[in-house]
């Protein structure tokens, strides 16, 4: 443990060197601007009006200007403002109902003031932590790493949200993703608050040893500020991170700050690959595409049988979604990746395309499909699955999309309501990931795998049930004491032979997605929202966060 701390926590000389490098890198003006930002935030919290916005190109001296990441352009609106806009729309719809549901001995005006106050509490992010720390690279040079961790709400604890490694990040993006995580958890009844973290690096530019040092140091910085812990804040993998990174995080936390905590390894989730549990996007699409009322509005028939679809992103979300839709009878006519797209109106087999990509490192050149020169988002199809990074659909290209159903498998820039198009929102569709993380977190706290205490008992119960039926039939219909064998079907035999932990988690995920979809549909019907499940999801999230007991302090 002492060796680990010496390797991660710099001594006095290291600290002096790190501070000198930091000052030489950003300049003293950056410290002044940071202080000004803090004063502005404090003034805003005290009720003073916010400072006027900076003009384009006039970023404070010595401070990085993330204009491309967070520019508020007409074609690419500010991410966090867009999320807040949808929240405001949901609040305007459900506000009167929240007032009516209050059963307190207060006047009508007092109730309205209470509801308005709680809705104001729900909207902003509670904590935004900005970090800078030095690391020594393998070549001997020093570099200052920047990172963020945002906690949107502690109406439920711990907070939950992934850690992504990307150079294209900003405080605005992290705040927006943390807000979305809070609302996702509410939609699927997962008892977490929302959070998000990002480290501003391109992992391809660092060795494995350097990435380990960055991850471990970032973990310690979070721990020193009480931004990580099994009951405080639980990170997970996200873009460019995986089970390797969360293993480093868990080891660092349990070896230092959490060495006394029996639940220390529950400080993160995502230890193992998700057992192909990205089928959450399939379950989300399935619940809406089987709803006859929605399909009739779109002029479609329920089910996957005669549907065509396009997948934009052939990774951890896109590939499993393609597999499941193909298995249930839908036909994939196009797949898009960052380096290009392929198209075949007769259909693309997911297994063949996966094998080709594993062999060649790209989907381009796949012999059973043509390279598509245009935008794969604009291909004529029934279902468009957005399974890549954010910001794929904007105001300029959205009108050219021909799909009748848009499934936001990734966090998108919050598409506005489209005419005669149903957008299955990321607020619901992408919430399957945090649902599985919730199951894993509970398993880590319980220190026992799912089903270990019940599998054998359930098998014996099923066996005795079949034997009881057989004996009853033999007593009633058996001739001369003959047997009446009960032969279970193959499907039932698989079940009574014992479900695996994967089967249990799959079942829990499917049930969660089904219940949440029904709640969204009922909410849309109650408030007459038509083909707008996104607003219905926000309304439902607001109701649940409001009822969680958010109070004035």
UniProtKB/TrEMBL annotation:
SUPFAM superfamilies: Aminoacid dehydrogenase-like, N-terminal domain, NAD(P)-binding Rossmann-fold domains
Signal peptide: none
Keyword ATP-binding appears in the UniProt entry: yes
Disordered: annotated segments: 43-74
Pfam families per the UniProt record, alphabetical: ELFV_dehydrog, ELFV_dehydrog_N
GO biological process: L-glutamate catabolic process
Molecular function GO terms recorded: ATP binding; glutamate dehydrogenase (NAD+) activity
Gene Ontology CC: one annotated term: mitochondrion
Record keywords, A-Z: ATP-binding, Mitochondrion, Nucleotide-binding, Oxidoreductase
Catalytic activity: L-glutamate + NAD(+) + H2O = 2-oxoglutarate + NH4(+) + NADH + H(+); L-glutamate + NADP(+) + H2O = 2-oxoglutarate + NH4(+) + NADPH + H(+)
Start and end residues of each Glutamate/phenylalanine/leucine/valine/L-tryptophan dehydrogenase C-terminal domain: 281-549
EC number: 1.4.1.3
The UniProt record lists the keyword Oxidoreductase: yes
Oligomer and partners: Homohexamer. Interacts with HADH; this interaction inhibits the activation of GLUD1.
Name of the protein in its database record: Glutamate dehydrogenase 1, mitochondrial
Native source species: Monodon monoceros
């Amino acid at each position: 443990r002492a060796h680990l701390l010496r390797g991660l926590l710099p001594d006095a000389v290291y600290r002096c060197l790190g501070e000198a490098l930091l000052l030489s890198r950003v300049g003293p003006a950056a410290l002044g601007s940071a202080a000004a930002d803090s004063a502005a935030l404090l003034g805003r919290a005290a009720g003073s009006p916010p400072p006027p916005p900076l003009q384009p190109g006039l970023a404070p001296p010595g401070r990085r200007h993330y204009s491309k990441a967070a520019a508020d352009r007409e074609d690419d609106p500010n991410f966090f403002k867009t999320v807040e806009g949808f929240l405001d729309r949901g609040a305007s719809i459900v506000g009167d109902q929240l007032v009516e549901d209050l059963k307190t001995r207060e006047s009508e005006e007092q109730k309205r003031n209470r509801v308005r106050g709680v809705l104001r509490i729900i909207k902003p992010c509670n904590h935004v932590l900005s970090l800078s720390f030095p690391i020594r690279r393998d070549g001997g040079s020093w570099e200052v790493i920047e990172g963020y961790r945002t906690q949107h709400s502690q109406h439920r604890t711990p907070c939950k949200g992934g850690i992504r490694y990307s150079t294209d990040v900003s405080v605005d993006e992290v705040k927006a993703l943390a807000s979305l995580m809070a609302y996702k958890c509410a939609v699927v009844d997962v008892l977490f608050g929302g959070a998000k973290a990002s480290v501003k690096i391109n992992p391809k530019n660092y060795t494995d040893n350097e990435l380990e040092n960055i991850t471990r140091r970032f973990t310690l910085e979070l721990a020193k500020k009480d931004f990580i812990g099994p009951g405080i804040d639980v990170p997970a993998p996200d873009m460019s991170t995986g089970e390797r990174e969360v293993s480093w995080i868990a080891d660092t936390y349990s070896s230092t700050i959490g060495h006394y905590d029996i639940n220390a390894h529950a400080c993160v989730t995502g230890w193992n690959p998700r057992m192909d549990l990205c089928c959450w996007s399939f379950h989300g699409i399935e619940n809406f595409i089987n709803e006859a009322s929605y399909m009739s509005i779109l002029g479609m028939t329920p089910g996957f049988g005669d549907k065509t679809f396009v997948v934009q992103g052939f990774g951890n979300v896109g590939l499993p979604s393609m597999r499941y839709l193909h298995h249930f009878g839908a036909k994939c006519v196009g797949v898009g990746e960052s380096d290009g797209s392929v198209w075949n109106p007769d259909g693309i087999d997911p297994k063949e395309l996966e094998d080709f990509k594993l062999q060649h490192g790209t989907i381009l050149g796949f012999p059973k499909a043509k390279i598509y020169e245009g935008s794969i988002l604009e291909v004529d199809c029934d279902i468009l699955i957005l399974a890549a990074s954010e910001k794929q659909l904007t105001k300029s290209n959205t009108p050219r999309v021909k799909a009748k159903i848009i499934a936001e498998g990734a966090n998108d820039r919050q598409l506005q309501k489209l005419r005669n198009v149903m957008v299955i929102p990321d607020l619901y569709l992408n919430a399957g990931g945090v649902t599985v993380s919730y199951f894993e977190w509970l398993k880590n706290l319980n220190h026992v795998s799912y089903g270990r205490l019940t599998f054998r008992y359930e098998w014996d119960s099923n066996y005795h049930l079949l034997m009881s039926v057989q004996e009853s039939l033999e007593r009633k219909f058996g001739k001369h004491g003959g047997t009446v064998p009960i032969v279970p079907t193959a499907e039932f035999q698989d079940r009574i032979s014992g479900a695996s932990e994967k089967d249990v988690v799959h079942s829990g995920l499917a049930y969660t997605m089904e219940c949440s979809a029904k709640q969204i549909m009922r909410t849309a019907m109650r408030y007459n929202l038509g083909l707008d499940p996104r607003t219905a999801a926000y309304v439902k999230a607001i109701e649940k966060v409001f009822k969680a007991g958010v109070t004035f302090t």
